[in-house]
Design brief:
This protein is mostly helical and about 170 residues long. It has 8 helices and no strands. The chain has helices at about 5-25, 35-45, 55-80, 85-90, 100-115, 120-130, 135-140, 145-165.
Length: about 170
């Protein structure tokens, strides 16, 4: 396996672009710190080696998902009387504008989808949190672009039903 740092250096600009788009998608009227999101995701990788660029992007997508979910949980806890200032808020100061309930609902639905249909959960992580195209997601998953496209359509339909109450989540 390769050292993850050179692959990360090579992919840094793409990861920042993805993080920026992801953060803006969650809070379009805020100026958000995409750089901090990428850095926190890298720290969460914990030196895990990446086989190639697609593998690194997949690992980073999952890490960014968990950074946002942990932040949303902390914000929800704060609303219930927990700590008002968290490490995540210090690290990701502008993510306070993210709608925590939406992130947590998506995470719960995605966790259930991944348990029932692992490949569908993976394609959502790669596309939504990793910013990959269908072709890139197919390469990362080891399937054709056509299969990735079909999985993406199924996953989106499943998540739509889950997030709108048609599928029990949790």
């Amino acid at each position: 396996m390769d050292d993850p740092l050179p692959a990360f250096d090579d992919a840094y600009d793409d990861l920042r672009r993805v993080a920026h788009a992801l953060v803006l998608r969650r809070a379009p009227n805020a100026t958000l710190n995409a750089t901090a999101l990428v850095h926190e995701a890298f720290l969460r990788l914990g030196g895990h080696p990446a086989h190639d660029r697609a593998h690194l992007m997949a690992l980073a997508a999952r890490a960014m998902r968990f950074v946002l979910v942990d932040h949303a949980r902390a914000r929800t806890s704060a609303k219930r009387g927990g700590l008002r200032v968290t490490l995540d808020e210090a690290t990701l100061p502008h993510l306070a504008d993210v709608r925590a309930d939406e992130v947590l609902a998506l995470d719960a639905a995605l966790t259930q989808l991944s348990a029932e249909h692992p490949r569908l959960g993976t394609v959502v992580e790669l596309r939504f949190f990793g910013g990959m195209t269908l072709a890139e997601a197919g390469v990362a998953m080891g399937v054709s672009e056509r299969t990735a496209k079909r999985d993406w359509a199924l996953a989106r339909a499943w998540l739509h039903r889950a997030l709108h109450g048609d599928v029990p989540v949790g």
